[in-house]
Each structure stands twice: as C-alpha cells, then as structure tokens.
Amino acid sequence: MALYDSFIENMSSHPKIVQKLEIYRNKKIAQFIDKFVVEKSNNKTVFEVGIGIGTFADEITKLHYTYTGLDRNQKMVEMFGEKYHTLLGEIPPLPNQVKTNYYNIAYAAFVAEHMKDGIELFEFVHALKTVVKPNGIIALIMPDARSMGMEFWNQDYTHRYPTTERNVRMIREENNLKIENITFYRGPFLRKMMFWIVKFLAFFYNYRWCGRLFGHKALFYSIYQYIKIDIMLFVCRKK
C-alpha cells in the first residue's frame, strides 16, 4: 500500500520532540512487557507483527532479545532486513517460515484494529499463540475505539474492527489465554494518575478548531492522536 510506503517518511518528518517521545514510549513498553517473561537468560526471542519504523525492535533488542519481524509492506521489510531478521507476509494464516512454539514474546502494536472483523482478529491471536513457547507472552496494543467515536474511521481508512476492552477480552478467552495485565495509557506510555490528568486536560482540545485558527492541520491532528486516544495494552500468557 502506498499509504504504508510513505509511513517511514511521515514519521521521520515529525518534530524531534515527537520522535524522542516515540523512542521513550517503545522503551517503556519493552521494559514493561519484559517483566512478564519467565525466562531470564540473555537469549530470549521476540516475534513482532507490523514492524513500523523499527523503534520497538531497537528497544527490545537492548534487553537481550533476538528479534524477528513480519510485515506486509515490502519496503519496510527491505529497509530493516539488513539490521533485523524480517519476513514479508501477514497473519492470518501463519506463514510457513515462522517458527512455532519458539518465541518468548509475540507482539503486535496497532494491528488489531485493521482486521476486517472479530473473527479475523480471533484467528490472528490464535496464530500468535502458536508461535510462542508454553508460558510465553502475547502482547497486543490497540486503540480503545470508544475513546475515538467516529474518529476511529477518520484516522485511517484501513481501520475496520473497532477494538474495545470487552470484545478483545472475549477473543482472549476464546483463545484460552491468561490475562496478566491490561493497561490503558496515552501518549508516551502515561499511565495511572498521569493518564487521568492528560485525559482531563485533553477533554478541552479540538484539532479541528486549532487547525482552522492556526493552520498546520497535520500537526494538530498528530497532537490529537497523542493526547486524546485511550490506548490499550493487553499482556496475555499462553497456558
């Protein structure tokens, strides 16, 4: 998709402060997920679906993980192929070249909402379950569609399945996974009290008004995505 061909350039064009916050966010998420991994050796493995600009890969490998990434976008796979083990493809179904019962972590950020329906998301989670070891971790990040309303479909034309805590819990249960943690955050992994403070302040923010008053519509929309959307992190364990 041309939309994702330009993803790397779009992210690189963001102000330096935004890029640094994204690095910080992925660092905190990697550290948070690592706490749930039973194996504590220096030879842990992680499998990511949707490699993005490689920020999560950079941070998780600092924690002594061997990284494998899968992406549907050939440009991204080629760009990061020299640095990390990357594969071209998508799930479901699970590509033949992906090892099963092998990884300590299976991770996917902002992929679930692109599934065509809940059945496909169930199959996606089931495929991730097959790649992790017994007691392995499946970590999923997605927006809470309830916090977005109609903006869920406006943000990205490839958004199809409105993810919520309730429907993802059901998919977890049907896949016989144990929930270790569900965390809601905003922006650079702001949780707990900071989450509620940002949520309160962001209540008064409207990217449309700011864009009309000051121009720079793309900038104000980026701010919207960062401070007004509730993001869910599900950490589940394979039984």
**Morphology call:** globular
CATH topology: Rossmann fold
By CATH, the superfamily comes out as Vaccinia Virus protein VP39
Biggest sheet details:
7 strands, mixed
Task: Say how many strands there are.
Answer: 7
Percent in helix? 40-55%
Q: Please tell me how large the radius of gyration is.
A: 18 Å
Question: How would you describe the overall organization of this protein?
Answer:
The chain is an alpha/beta fold and 239 residues long. It contains 11 helices and 7 strands. Helix 4 (55-61) links the parallel strand 1 and strand 2 (65-71). Helix 6 (118-131) crosses helix 8 and helix 10 packs antiparallel against helix 11. The chain is globular, with a radius of gyration of 18 Å.
Task: Present the secondary structure layout.
Elements: H1 2-5, H2 7-12, H3 16-34, E1 44-49, H4 55-61, E2 65-71, H5 74-80, E3 85-88, E4 103-109, H6 118-131, E5 132-143, H7 151-155, H8 165-174, E6 177-185, H9 192-202, H10 207-214, H11 217-227, E7 231-238
Parallel strand pairs: 1-2, 1-4, 2-3, 4-5
Antiparallel strand pairs: 5-7, 6-7
Helix pairs in contact: 3-4, 6-8, 10-11
